[in-house]
Amino acid sequence: MKKTILIACLGLVSLGLQAQSISLAGEWNVELGKSGSAFAKNKRASQGEVKRAILPGTIDTNRLGFAPKDTMETTHLTRLYAYKGAARYSRTINIPKDWKKKPVELFLERTRPTWVYVDGELVDSCNFISTPQRYLLPKKVKPGKHLLEIVVDNGRGVPEQVYGSSHAYTEDTQTNWNGIIGRIELQLASSVEGKYAETLTGAIPRSSVAFSVGAIPSRSVASPSALQMPDFAKDFHIEGAHFYANGHRIFLRGKHDAAVWPLTGHVEMSVEGWMKYLGTCKEYGINHVRFHSWCPPEAAFVAADSLRIYLQPELPFWGSFDKKDEKLMSFLHQEGVNILREYGHHPSFRMMALGNELWGDIDKMKEFVDDFRKIAPDKYYTFGSNYYLGYQGIKEGMDYFTTCRIGGEEWGKYNTHTRGSFSFADAYDGGMINHFHPNSTMNFDEACDKAGIPIISHETGQFQTYPDYREMKKYTGVLHPYNFEVFRRRLAAAGMLSQADDFHKASGLWSVKLYKADIEMDLKTRNMAGFQLLDIQDYPGQGSAFVGILDAFMESKGITTPEEWRQWCSPVVPLLEMKKFCFEDGEMIQAKVKVANYGGASLKGKKLKWHLAEDEGVLNIFSYDEGLVEVGELNGVFHVQKPTKLLLTLNIEGTEARNSYELWVYPKKAMEKKGVIIAKDLNQEVVKVLEKGGRVLWMPTASSHFVAADDTLSQADNATPYTVGGLFQTDYWNYRMFKTICENNKKKVSPGTLGILTNPNHPIFKGFPTEMHTNWQWFPVIKESHPLVLDNFAKDYRPIVQVIDNIERNHKLGLVMEWKVGDGKLLVCMSDLEKAAKYPEGKAFYQSVIDYMRSADFNPSAEITVDELKKKLVEKPRQVSLKELNNISQY
What we know:
Blueprint: E1 5-8, H1 12-15, E2 18-23, E3 26-32, E4 39-40, E5 43-44, E6 51-55, E7 57-58, E8 78-79, E9 86-95, E10 104-111, E11 114-118, E12 121-126, E13 133-136, E14 144-153, E15 179-189, E16 237-239, E17 242-245, E18 248-250, E19 252-257, H2 271-283, E20 288-291, H3 298-307, E21 310-312, E22 318-321, H4 326-343, E23 351-353, E24 356-360, H5 362-375, E25 380-382, E26 401-403, H6 432-435, H7 445-448, E27 455-461, E28 479-480, H8 482-493, H9 500-523, E29 530-534, H10 562-565, E30 572-577, E31 582-584, E32 588-597, E33 607-612, E34 615-620, E35 627-637, E36 644-652, E37 658-666, E38 677-679, H11 684-691, E39 695-698, E40 706-707, E41 722-723, H12 735-744, E42 753-758, H13 779-783, E43 788-789, E44 801-805, E45 813-821, E46 824-829, H14 833-836, H15 840-854, H16 866-874
Parallel strand pairs: 19-20, 19-29, 20-21, 22-24, 23-25, 26-27, 27-29, 31-37, 38-39, 39-46, 40-41
Antiparallel strand pairs: 1-13, 2-15, 3-6, 3-9, 4-5, 7-15, 8-28, 9-14, 10-13, 10-15, 11-12, 11-14, 16-17, 17-18, 30-32, 32-35, 33-34, 33-36, 36-37, 42-44, 43-45, 44-45, 45-46
């Protein structure tokens, strides 16, 4: 066979080579399980069943794969037509007469490792997964009809680690599809023979996994000065701890992208599709997208160029960056070179990482970065998003650092953190937001001030929302939500299916407030350069992580709006710094007003208007500065006659910049407890009073209970109820995965709950304004709590304050409950209100409970005897067996 050339990483338009093209989209023959050519020396070889497939497409989209054997999968969505292995696609092609003696190329925009045959003879093979594959057909392929066969194999051809450790392949999101997507064309070009990849770096190294690449022409990456850059990318550079573009400081308001495409199971390939996706991002104030362990196609870069959004693609890997693994290193290096040469001309492509949460050889990471910088010096590079989970800190060769922490960590301290929430395995008490009394002064100055390079907060948030089962009807494509079905059945078995919508709404509204707090901590950090949320979109894999404010389809969950979200996720954000949100009458408010100004212009001369109840005023902005700007202070005294919730609003006149903060003020008075028996133990004396008509508040102490965070529920003695711990924020990412990690690392397991659900109109809240969901005033009550497992109580019983459990356990959990017992009335509060009362809000809740119990409103509808109550408290609740779910990032 004469010398053939596999052409990769070319932008033929930019080289002025493309003359014509013939689309090969349409119907193809396909044989599953077949590799090699169907012809051998012009004789028909054995064939399997020949089916028809539409390309672009996959085995899944053509419904040719195999039905799932497991319909109980909960760790990710389930492929309805899964297939792994070789598939031979074939059709007749017709090369026009006027292409005679001209080089003909086969262009496959995105696929898996391929082997291409023409008339039974192997042309070449390629394993590029992040960029198009281009084959130069042999010169002896004359005009006329020919048999083209493409063997696509999604079971071999790339290093083994990639199958489960890259969002280009993983079943958790994009799926390991088999097929060809995007453009499939024959292209006519002028002679490329002899035009080698020598611009900038010389010839591209040979592909890994024993694939023959041959000499590869290259698209050179032009310098910024050679391109007509739009303003958002013009002169994109770093000064100290910040990014700049077009002469102005910028802040990256980013989201994480894990290739979640629920209808097709593969990445979108059209510009229109990416305009819709990135357009939604922009509606929510996002100006940056980080592609977790994969690289999007050309269409994404085109759309991002148009919408002025910065992209950070990554090599298709997370795990051990082992220099001894030559096959892996060769494959990843080739992918990086391909990505830079194929997409590097796009203004939106300004940053690149070596993958996600890597560990391994740091010198090898630097070697990669040094090589890539020679190819594309206009880009900025980091070793890997959150490499070594941040513990290794900043190393030479890193232009910026995407991380959750900078350097090591002393357990119980947060001085190296760069985000507000963590799993219980990775930070004491799940991080700063869950641990500290609510305030708006927290930031990450201590960590970022020492960095010296731009710091981007890695995978910020990860606050769970209970799923919306109404979403299930949207899954009309190749992926089925069996995970939703399993979770829904569990909820029904627990007798709480009627509460599903309320669980979703209450947990979701609370998660939005948590995201606001985490984002504002970034904005209030002097030397923070940006954040990458996880996420505004749900992640349906790795245990099913419903952490988005939007669902997996990038559509609203009904828990926030773009307008609300942009209050704290915009180029210009007014900020209020307060040490707390809850006050007593007569107490002074002292707050600093700042503005995160990344709008590309000075705010000097603008007026910032504030409004609180009947008061309002104006602060003049005198600073010319961009970045975090100090505006002034608000000082005053609160006066209220009754418990009151207030809204303090800030807006910069003449602009869309606005923000708001909720405050609570309570009358200052001594606690009044007369008329109620307050007990820590339900002993005989208390029971006697209760059964004779007394009103009893029972608050089991934390020291007398066993905190059970999982299916290993047990009890310390016959008097102690089954409980879970008190978690203020919603559980991080996914309960099952981090339960596994915590147990393996001998760390405390998160309580795993998703906030509270209650009726704000219930008379128990007359002295404690609340919504149906958790808010900042609940902190001391929840942190001192140990919610009771009510699985053995009546199916229709609902506590006054219910705690929403995670989708894995679905326990019915009570924080405040009431029963009629004999002639008396019992209210059970699973929080130490004596401790909570150290804070104004805790004291107010305590008094509100007492006032309710003394009133005529206290009239429980559910009845129970003391013996029955004690019996149910010691019965073992419903057990849920949770299998281990490991995360490969835990090295």
